[in-house]
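Annex B. Sample input.
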Amino acid sequence: MNLRFKLARWPLVMVAGLVTISVVQAGWFRATRDIAYYSPCAVVASADGRDVFVAEYTANQVVKIDLASGALKKVIATQLPPTGLALDSKAGILYVTLEAAEGQVAAYDAETGKCKALIPVGHTPVAPAVSQDGKMLAVCNRFNNDVSLIDASSRKELGRVAVCREPVAAAFTPDGRRMVVANHLPAMPANSDYLAAAVSIVDSVSRTVVTNLTLPNGSTGLRGVCVSPDGRFAYVTHTLGRYQLPTTQLERGWMNTSAISIVDLQADKLLVSVLLDDVDLGAANPWGVACSGDGKTLCVAHAGTHEISEIDRLALHERLDRVAKGEKVGVSLSLEDVPNDLSFLVGLRKRIKLPGNGPRGLCLAGDSAVAGLYFSDDLAVVQLKGENPVVRLVSLGPKAPLTQERKGEKYFNDAQFCFQEWQSCASCHPDGRADGLNWDLLNDGIGNPKNTKSMLFCFQTPPSMSLGIRENAAKGVRAGLKFIQFAVRPEEDALAIDEYLTKMKPVPSPYLVKGKLSKAALRGKKVFTAAGCAACHPAPFYTDLQSYDIGLGEGVDNDKPFDTPVLVECWRTAPYYFDGRAFAMKEALIKLNKGDKHGKTSTLSPQEADDLTEYVLSL
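Annex B, continued. Sample output.
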């Protein structure tokens, strides 16, 4: 391992009310392994609130930092990118999820940093959660669409619970008997009147799903979840897309709003979704969420607008109770009105601007909220007491110059580029992929919404858009800035986004077996060629860059040729076709292939159809 050691000290600096602390070495030598960026993605506080552990995704390490001084107390090197943290303070164990197709969760001694165990879990494990008694550990296996439940004492996986689609956050109730899981994307066709992601309520004892609660229409991009100290409510952050409206404006959340959905855990039902935006200022890309130990305060990190919302939780529920009883509050006459009320949080919430960029992971430490600033490699420490919260910035280390790719990724996720900060590129393309919704973007007429496409390989496979409206992805990027974000940006910003999208890498399919095609997929590969699929979907991107009328156009788009889509990573891009009419790949390949216009699949045996589906989902 290539190690380089640095010893450095920086003074404490106060600038215009902002305290900045660079990580003070305090006699410790730091092994950095030629780190360019740190990318803090998760934070968790010690029981006394004096220290925080930080998962540094692109640095392949977890660090322990003294919050008061900013002193670096411990560095734990990880062989894989760390994606999430959970701390069992009583046992002194720090759990870290490690990203890989064959993922792991590592158990570290929180004091010494020594690895006590490596527990195999699923594909891209994230968001570990530990029960209050320390007996149960849960890990979200994002691309297996399930949750591992692990016995903490034996460190053995007890079993997995299948949930909906891409579980990305989980939290136990105080008694440890229930778990709330946030599923990132909708798991349904996109051409229906109602389309939304769901929250799964899991019985951790029987290891079964109690119910899947579908959120309000347009809910997508779920990111964070927490449970109130009394176990009565869960809070889930997400984007709330108004996808049924033509994209003619942004004012008053016309396209995308940001929300926190409240789940009643006593009744196992969705209570209400509350908008986090203001009337003329969006609060894009809500991410981490945390509730204070006394239950009085709820905090939300806004990754797109670089701020933290501090919400009076008790007053929020008092206001919701009044509305539920029929009392008019603002413009809301009932709970059904609340998800459309941009003024509902007025007087209950402070929006605290952070000096860095991209707060994602969030925790509460004593009287402070601590957020990891993904793109500026800092921690924001917000003292919540008082009318005017004080923000301290703790630098995680020396700042490396931004490469064009890193700059483009930052811009892609930055809602400050957008008029009134309602959305970023990532609002509709989370992680550069798709939100699962249909949008009427007006670039090909009105009244013909199209399913959001993944941006993977968009520069390598022109033209862009389902109908090939944009000659190439570069023109699509610039049109997006102008007509979707309603912004005028310098050309260098678009060039940086171009570079980021060009450098995107595919994630290995969860259908692979130890990185290789399964026996069924190998048989399916032969069917893929024999059925003529390979003619229009040749390797390496599995598209011939041509457009065809495959008999699926309707209405305005009837008899129009559609661009041949990239099949790499198609296991991740459901629903399928220009209008998202098929959620299952087998349905797209067989049932919706009328007249064998996209491959001769009508005469395939059931086994051949299954094998073909397995192969395509393995790409």
